[in-house]
Amino acid sequence: xxxxxxxxxxxxxxxxxxxxxxxxxxxxxxxxxxxxxxxxxxxxxxxxxxxxxxxxxxxxxxxxxxxxxxxxxxxxxxxxxxxxxxxxxxxxxxxxxxxxxxxxxxxxxxxxxxxxxxxxxxxxxxxxxxxxxxxxxxxxxxxxxxxxxxxxxxxxxxxxxx
Amino acid sequence: xxxxxxxxxxxxxxxxxxxxxxxxxxxxxxxxxxxxxxxxxxxxxxxxxxxxxxxxxxxxxxxxxxxxxxxxxxxxxxxxxxxxxxxxxxxxxxxxxxxxxxxxxxxxxxxxxxxxxxxxxxxxxxxxxxxxxxxxxxxxxxxxxxxxxxxxxxxxxxxxxx
DNA sequence: AGGAAATATCTGACTACTCAGATACTGTTG
DNA sequence: CAACAGTATCTGAGTAGTCAGATATTTCCT
Lengths: 162, 162
Prior knowledge:
- 2 copies of one chain form a homodimer.
- By secondary structure, chain A is mainly alpha-helical.
- Chain A has one domain (8-161): Arc Repressor Mutant, subunit A, CATH 1.10.10.10.
- Helices cover 69% and strands 7% of the residues of chain A.
- The first copy, chain A, is globular, with a radius of gyration of 20 Å.
């Protein structure tokens, strides 16, 4: 694992490069495919689904936009435009932020709540059908544990990299 | 795990939705951050790096473009444009495909090989420094095994979803 | 062989991001 | 409290993807 990388072929075959590449590639494709499935079934993009979930966890008053750009890998400009589209689609609404007149609060509309429920059902169904059911039942726990370990490790790593 | 989802709050708190969301989010951010690091250090995008590695694994003759769109989550149109930029940057070159006159072969230039080596060094260094070194040494094997299991499971799931 | 269907790539039009700069506030500090 | 650095959001311009349609060539079937 500690060899110097001399040629391009060696670089491409390096154990760490290969292992991380496969892992990240698989995770990306999974997200891509699950996102596509929601998009086709519910007519909202993957990012919109994430935002619906973030807002569903918040309380009545909603969240300021910056809270959304922090949770997603999106610049503030990107969030402005994403929320513009979601507002145009009737899923969220913007209101004044009483604590800070620079900011706006974003909260779910009734239609947004309904869409969050609908999309979650689709999502859970897809995960279960294609991801979990083919595994023998006793592997579910092990798998869930793997997910936890990896998401924590990956999260820690991101924190250090920044 | 089998409850019906009734409200948006329940949807957002659903165990599967949360676990997959965290996992995919962490994997994405990790890829994003590692990609950024390569971009800043080497001046190539994350996708260009992936393509350099794919081509480095191929033999002298290179690969047809379609082989690249298959390995990446990219349409053929996207590959055309990505390779356009890489060719403009001097990293790859296109040649005729003697077996199929519709297609073109893409292969690394000397500059492309050098860039693959350079970027891999940076990548390995970052993974090691931020991801592996903070783990106690005896966890490395367990971790590598986790990566293997998860990337295989995710790959299988994607196959079933399509 | 002759022609239909499939495949590889390229392109025009569109979309959704990024970055940087503008605007409008807030908070801190001398 | 006046100035100034900081923060939240929005916007213009640029970039890199998608999709669908065009073109050239191959493959398959009769």
